[in-house]
TrEMBL record:
InterPro entries: F-box_BR-signaling (IPR050942), KIB1-4_b-propeller (IPR005174)
Source organism of this protein record: Kingdonia uniflora
Protein name per Swiss-Prot or TrEMBL: KIB1-4 beta-propeller domain-containing protein
Pfam families for the chain: Beta-prop_KIB1-4 (PF03478)
All copies of domain KIB1-4 beta-propeller, residue ranges: 71-172
Amino acid sequence: MVDSKWSELLLELLQGIRSRVLKNSIADYICFGAVCKSWGSVIVEKLRCLPPQVPLIMTLSNTKTISSCFYSHESKKYRRCERKIGGNQTFIGYGHGWMVTEANKTASLVNPITGDKIHLPLLTRLLIDRAKLSSHPTLTRDNCVVMALVTNYSYEKTLAFCKPGDNNWTVMVYYTA
């Protein structure tokens, strides 16, 4: 059996394949991007140009692999995409096609289609309960904020936020009179 190396195709060739194969369906983009990491990176730049669509439903299977199953209402089909993420990740939030995960006091943003990962500041004396993203973390990097409901060292619920690239979380402090 011949060992194929899809991930080693030239960028120009991948872009040519993308422009000929992909139409205006997000489901096609998921299948294309699931081939390997390099194919997934080629679709990200084009996703901004897609017309509005009915959202896809995503389910996750376990914590060692992002085994996402997307259901397209348009085609009435399921599309499967698997990405290894390693460790015991806990999924604590999502937004703009990215998931917020936490493991061993480290929070990350993970793209379930491309497998890309963006590390967030360490969770020193914080435990995240839920998190949301304000915008897409790679397309609007300077404007993306991760907002989280956290439990602090005094076991009080409060809010914290950070941007990708920050060194620390900013914790909201509430004063009572």
